[in-house]
Amino acid sequence: MHIAFDADDTLWHNESVFSLTCERFAELLADHCEAGELDNKLIETEQRNLRLYGYGVKGFTLSMLETALEVSAHQIDPANIQAILDAGKAMLEHPIELLPGVKNAVIDLAAQHPLMIITKGDLFDQESKIARSGLSDLFAIIEVVSEKNPDTYRRILDRHDIAAERFVMVGNSVKSDILPVVAIGGNAVHVPYATTWVLDRVAHRGARGEGFWQIEHMSELPAVLDQIAALGWA
């Protein structure tokens, strides 16, 4: 079977970095907007800009700047504009911290199966993180995409001549990593992260036997893959 992993918040921490930056953003705009209202306005701006900027730190930074101008009626101190830009740059340079159990799991699985990374976001940023993770040599295929939906997964599997029933996706996002893969007849293993970006939240139902699996820790993944294989699904 081919096993694919999401990157951010599946292999390494990511959302926690965004959360820290949002706290810094609220401090910078405290004179213009309360933190709760600012969060809502930033989310609205991000949602509006996704079609233009896509996912990732660069689009997030532009959305912070746009929100800052809006809530301050364009009166924000230029020094705070610089501070927002610096915060975005710091995010791009933030050290990669692998999640517990990831390194051993990937090393062990790479000895038995072809591994893939399928992640969405800015190409330059994602390639940089993958290279800095120390894991890149363990993956036979790396795909950075602008969106994850059934059509995206179909194109990737067709391009690499992989049958959906021989494909397993592992990720933290039900919306991006799980439901689209189940929809095309593959198997998907949900590994929840501590926090989920608000625009990535979705109501869902999944049960074993429908291609939807869930674990709490990466160390549980080999046992689930054995179950999938035993059922003849991969």
Describe the structure.
Strands 3-2-1-4-5-6 form a six-stranded parallel β-sheet, with helices on both faces. Helix 6 (123-132) links the parallel strand 2 (115-120) and strand 3 (141-145). It is of the alpha/beta class and 234 residues long. The mean pLDDT is 92. Helix 1 runs antiparallel to helix 4, helix 2 packs across helix 3 and helix 3 (57-71) packs antiparallel against helix 4. The chain is elongated and about 60 Å long. It has helices spanning 15-28, 35-53, 57-71, 78-92, 102-110, 123-132, 150-159, 174-183, 221-230; strands at 2-5, 115-120, 141-145, 167-171, 187-190, 212-214. The chain folds into two domains: 2-12 and 98-230, HAD superfamily/HAD-like (Rossmann fold, 3-Layer(aba) Sandwich); 15-92, Orthogonal Bundle (DNA polymerase, domain 1). 48% of the residues lie in helices and 12% in strands.
Quick summary:
By secondary structure, the chain is α/β, with parallel strands linked by helices.
User: Total number of helical segments?
Assistant: 9
Give the helix level as a range of percent: 40-55%
Beta-strand percentage range:
5-15%
Q: Quote the distance from N terminus to C terminus.
A: 6 Å
pLDDT averaged residue by residue: 92
CATH topology of the largest domain: Rossmann fold
What is the highest CATH level, the class of the largest domain? Alpha Beta
